[in-house]
Design goal:
Elements: E1 3-5, E2 12-23, E3 30-41, E4 45-49, H1 56-63, E5 71-76, E6 79-80, H2 86-95, E7 97-101, H3 112-122, H4 129-138, H5 154-166, E8 172-176, H6 184-199, E9 203-207, H7 211-215, E10 219-224, E11 227-233, H8 237-248
Parallel strand pairs: 1-3, 4-9, 4-10, 7-8, 8-9
Antiparallel strand pairs: 2-3, 2-5, 5-6, 10-11
Helix pairs in contact: 3-4, 3-5, 5-6
Length: 249
């Protein structure tokens, strides 16, 4: 049975049908994702949690087209990306998919506005300075446009990374532990930003180990040993933490 995250009335942003992914061969093979069926609805924010090694990041990478499934189907909206060629996936990641990493992945030699403008340039668009600066202003960094990553705090760097991922207005934003490298104050700022984006209709799928971060999402999906084992909506941080402890034991 397919698990649907959020209201049935909403269209599907991303869907995985019977998706599996293994690493290694023979007796040393590890099945990181095992026959997962899930639909993420448009305009919702879903957190993905589970014990270490449960397959969270692999699931995220499969949904975003960063890795290929061994079996099953992956759909971005109505587009089947399961067998898409590398150049097709690259084009999708430049236009329809945004990805945010825990380590920010900003280019150190570029300023904040140059980092944000990079996806537009790669998509062969000529970004206007006002467009890029307006995007930075939306995340409270109008006065940091000319600063390089080393001149920014961790929270500021992550907000630049989110802005870079969002500047092409992707259908789905994937975030892999976006607050994992941040202090609590910076993490709250980033989560507030993601919450505002979701409230404005942005589809977000986020891997996290932090129950407080997961509780800010609309729903939480739990994995164990590569399998989808539970999902909750409207849970508190304590309820999410308790469920995670249950899975770990």
């Amino acid at each position: 049975m397919t698990t649907t995250i959020a209201p049935r009335a909403a269209a599907t942003a991303v869907a995985l049908h019977g998706v599996s992914r293994s690493y290694g061969r023979g007796s040393t093979a590890v099945r990181a994702v095992d026959q997962v069926d899930v639909e993420f609805r448009r305009g919702t924010w879903t957190a993905v949690m589970g014990p270490s090694g449960s397959g969270k990041s692999t699931l995220l990478h499969l949904a975003a087209g960063l890795e290929r499934a061994d079996s099953g189907r992956v759909l971005l909206g109505d587009t089947d990306i399961t067998a898409a060629r590398d150049e097709e996936l690259t084009a999708l990641r430049r236009t329809r998919i945004g990805f945010v990493f825990q380590s920010f992945n900003l280019i150190g030699s570029l300023t904040a506005e140059q980092n944000v403008a990079l996806p537009l340039r790669l998509a062969r668009r000529r970004p206007g300075r006002s467009e890029v600066r307006a995007a930075l202003a939306d995340v409270g960094l109008a006065d940091r446009a000319r600063h390089r990553p080393r001149e920014l705090s961790g929270g500021q760097q992550q907000r630049v990374a989110i802005t870079r991922a969002m500047v092409t207005r992707p259908e789905v934003l994937f975030a892999d532990e976006p607050t994992g490298a941040l202090d609590s104050t910076s993490a709250r700022t980033v989560l507030d930003l993601l919450r505002a984006m979701a409230d404005n209709g942005q589809s977000i799928v986020m891997v996290t180990h932090d129950p407080a971060a997961a509780a800010r999402a609309d729903g939480v999906l739990f994995l164990r040993d590569g399998r989808l084992v539970d999902h909750v909506t409207g849970a508190s941080a304590r309820e999410v933490a308790d469920r995670l402890v249950d899975l770990e034991h």
